[in-house]
Input
Amino acid sequence: SGSRMWMVVTDSNEVVVNMHGSKYGAKLKDNRLMWDDGDIWIRQSQQALPLTLEDITVGSTVQVLDDVRRVLAACRQAGLGTYKDDRRRTFAGGPARALKKEPVDNTVKCLMPDGGFVWFAVGALTLPRAPAGILRLRTSDDYRDMSGDY
Output
């Protein structure tokens, strides 16, 4: 599934790839690969993309934000009470399955890994972490600043 191509590290902060007959280059800046076509790839450990209710599909996997304070603040802002906060803390940073969306208050009912259910504000959720295989860039010691999962 998908195609494979070589990325060539040309400098301590630059890579080049030939894809479908076109050459693309990227420079590393602030832990991001800034591509010459405008794309920006962010290292996985730094991603927490904000979502809207429309971004979430019932049945899909979402990720609870790592930052417990942000999770709880988003839930308060959406009008969710403190009743399930212990479970929200427990599952911060982990995956959940979206079971129901409530457009009135922008919340999502989630199935948690232990089989229980918790409502989260959409602002407490993000896209699931991509598998490490999306792009794992490992380089020699000379170019180690480029290494990471993108």
The helical segments are 68-77, 85-90. The first helix runs from residue 68 to 77. The two ends are 19 Å apart (CA to CA). The mean pLDDT is 83.
